[in-house]
Every structure is written in C-alpha cells, then in structure tokens.
UniProtKB/TrEMBL annotation:
SUPFAM superfamilies: RuBisCo LSMT C-terminal, substrate-binding domain. It comes from the Eukaryota. One of its GO terms (biological process) is methylation. This is N-lysine methyltransferase SETD6. Pfam families: Rubis-subs-bind. Keywords: Methyltransferase, Nucleus, S-adenosyl-L-methionine, Transferase. GO terms for molecular function: methyltransferase activity. Residues 43-53 have a biased composition (Acidic residues). Residues 40-59 are annotated as: Disordered. It is found in: Nucleus. Residues 4-121 form the Rubisco LSMT substrate-binding domain. One of its GO terms (cellular component) is nucleus.
Length: 129
C-alpha cells in the first residue's frame, strides 16, 4: 500500500502521499468483519466522489476518527524515537553560532533537514492529539 519505501510524505500543510496514507488508515482501522468484506471484494470498487476529491490537509487530519488519530500519533512517536537527538537539541545547535560554524557544510545541511522533519512530525502530533 505504501510503495517500495514504506513511508508517507508529509508537508507543512498536507500529506503529499495522501492516497497511500488514506488507504492504509482505512485498512488498519477496520474491524475484522470490515476487513473480511474488503478482502472478499478485492478492495473497494469505487470510493465516493467526496473521498476522491478530498485532500488530507492538516485540518482533515485533525478530524480523523480516534483510532486513525491514535495510529498516526503512535507512528509519529516511533519515528521521532528513531532520531538520535530531539527537536530541542537541534534547535539549540542551530542557535549556537559557534558550534554551528564548526560543522561542515554537509553537517549543516543535514541539521536543517532533520530539524524540518522533526518540526513537521511535532506539528502532526499536535493535529492528531
């Protein structure tokens, strides 16, 4: 369902791999009975137009059903635990001009990427709490 990398792409304002995330949440949050029907039908024949035209914006994420929000919340926590440092440590390093200057250009770029990733993940945590 999520492709070769098994990851979802999140942006500041919406989920960029919304179809994959939406489908995954639907399946993972199904009851056993719903899942059996889903398997028997080889998936859904046609989703409603409303679902096809909707995007997983930040607002839509905050309105997800509780089981889906819990699943996302727990997944984000696991993802954040995979980093060696937390958001505050990255922010402190960005704010410490002397320490930042000692980093190579590549390390500086990696720091900015990690910081941005963690900010987006923390934003998602707030949306699905």
């Amino acid at each position: 369902m999520v492709g070769e990398e098994g990851a979802f792409v999140l942006g500041w304002d919406e989920v960029l791999t919304e179809e994959e995330l939406s489908m995954t949440l639907k399946v993972l949050c199904m009851s056993e009975e719903e899942f059996n029907v889903y398997k028997e039908q080889d998936g859904w024949e046609d989703d409603s137009e409303e679902e096809e035209n909707s995007t997983l914006s930040n607002e839509a994420l905050s309105r997800l059903k509780t089981p889906c929000k819990k699943l996302l919340y727990d997944s984000v926590l696991l993802t954040l635990e995979s980093y060696r440092t937390d958001l505050k440590a990255e922010q402190d390093l960005l704010n410490n001009k002397e320490a930042y200057k000692k980093l190579s250009r590549r390390e500086q770029q990696a720091l900015h990427v990690r910081f941005g990733q963690k900010k987006i993940l923390h934003q998602l945590l707030e949306l699905v709490q």
